[in-house]
Task: structure prediction
Amino acid sequence: MSTIVIGFDNAFNETSKIMINIESPIAEHENIWVWDHFFSLVLNRLSDSEDKSQQLLDHMSEWAVGFANKMYSPINELHAEGAFKIDKNLRVEKKIDQCDEVIMIEVSSQADSWPTVHAKINDDTSPEKLSSSVIALAQYFLSNNTNFFRELPMHVLGMRKFYNDEMSFTSEESISGAPAFSFNLALKFYQDLDQKLQRQ
Result:
């Protein structure tokens, strides 16, 4: 089992510093699966906090729309355009001196299947920290896994379509339904793209 530890600086509201450590590596191809499930879980948790779910989805969607057609651009160009910084104010660190709250994501591998993802989140974790934890984890994966960038925009837009057309954030079924929907949509996109390239 791998554990992702997301810690918040004592003065998070002023510093915007978040620590991310991963105990035991997660296979790179599983990064998007883990992030999708954490994203859908947080959106479900935020659905009681006025429009916080929609604000987070809109923030991620705005980034995804901006970079969906640049998935295969050179890495140096993407860095120059700020593609790996979804929130330019958020500071993702390997360690912080004073941490006052932690979110833990447990990732359990399964033979011949995708891993299970379970998050331990305090009941009183603020909407701001929840939203920031999703963005921080995305930025962490973006900075450490090139393929994650090529997958993330399509997955975000797929999940947006799911919430718009299929099911509300408030439904418990959306926690697993949204990632599955986005995976199938992204898979079809890449299959169609591959066929198009083969015909050229």
